[in-house]
Amino acid sequence: MKDKIDMKHFLLVTLGSLIVVAGLYFFLVPSDLAVGGVTGLGVIFNHIFPQIPIGIIMGIFNIILFTLAFAVIGRDFGGYTVYSSFTIAIAIYILEMLVPMDKPLVDDLFLNLIYGIVIQGIGMAIVFNQETSTGGTDIIAKIINKFFHLDIGKSLFLADFIIVSFAASVFGLELGMYALLGILLNSLVVDHIIAGFGAKIKIIVISKEEKQISRYIIDEIGRGVTLYHGTGGYSKEEKRIINTVVSRGEYIKIREYIHEVDPKAFMWVNFVNEVFGEGFTH
To answer: Which of 105, 134, 144, 271 is the most buried (most CB within 10 A)?
Structure first.
């Protein structure tokens, strides 16, 4: 079982890293949008020293930060961070050799910023959700997240702000302002997507078939329920209220079952970003 979990972890880190590459290489890098991170440093130094490929520059900066990752966060985090960061650097280097990008896909700087940030943010969220980082200033962000309990997206913003300030002095105030907008959007995208990974659904049901519905949730779905006593404000009838928290897929099954056994059941749902406890995250 452990091997399967490790392989899933490895594949998700790989997928997230390659998605990051797509956002960077096809949208942000050719637009000189240094939106933070070691990639931002790579874009800045490549602009100053164009003879040095961005992938090589990224690799050099990442090596400097790896020791920090191993020492402060731990071996597993450091090991996968090394893998992710070098995957990104090597993939960008290969793309530079095979598919040179002399100019961005579209001429609209704002479109390149939006698409690049959204695509990159999705990839970064996948990697961060595996308790890993893509290297560079993401390591600093993870340290801030660990010790100050700040959301990872906000930690990224703090870690990248200095690089964006440097970018403004190299590429001009306009590109610097775009980059500042980029790291702000990136922090929002990463936090939103990570929250979505752990989102669950809270269901509250009032039904005359509460015993049957409760038994279905417990026996068929495998989730616990909490029953409350209530009284109808209009009818003055005694009622039993079912309260449970489930995944999206489980919610669909429960909703369909309730519709079958009691079409008149009253039900409302709320999305919950995080759930801790038995059967969920510890």
So the answer is: 134
Helical H segments across 104-151, by residue range: 109-129, 137-148
Query: Within 10 Å of residue 183's Cβ, how many Cβ atoms?
Result: 26
Share of the chain above pLDDT 70, in %: 96
User: Which residue matches tokens 């690049």?
Assistant: 116
pLDDT band with cut points at 50, 70 and 90 for residue 160: confident
Token digits of residue 179: 């980059």
**Using one digit for the tens of pLDDT, what is the confidence trace for 64-89?**
888 888 888 888 888 898 899 889 88
The tokens describing 160, both together, are 């990248």
Core vs surface per residue 132-154: b (16+ CB within 10 A) or e:
bbbbbbbbbbbbbbeeeeebbbb
Backbone angles phi, psi at 231, to 5 degrees: -130, 130
Q: Of 190, 126, 179, 130, which is closest to residue 156 (Cα–Cα)?
A: 190
Scanning the chain, the segments in alpha helix (DSSP H) are 2-23, 37-48, 54-72, 75-98, 109-129, 137-148, 152-171, 173-197, 210-216, 248-261
Fold of 200-272: Alpha-Beta Plaits (3.30.70)
Domain ranges (residues) in the chain: 2-197, 200-272
| pLDDT above 70 for 5 | no
Task: State in Å, rounded, how far the first CA of the chain is from the last one.
Answer: 19
Q: Reduced to 3 states, what is the DSSP secondary structure of residue 273?
A: coil
pTM value?
A: 0.72
Q: Which of 38, 21, 20, 43 is nearest to 176 (CA)?
A: 43
In the block, which residue shows the tokens 């990051």?
Answer: 20
CB-CB neighbours of 192 under 10 Å: 13
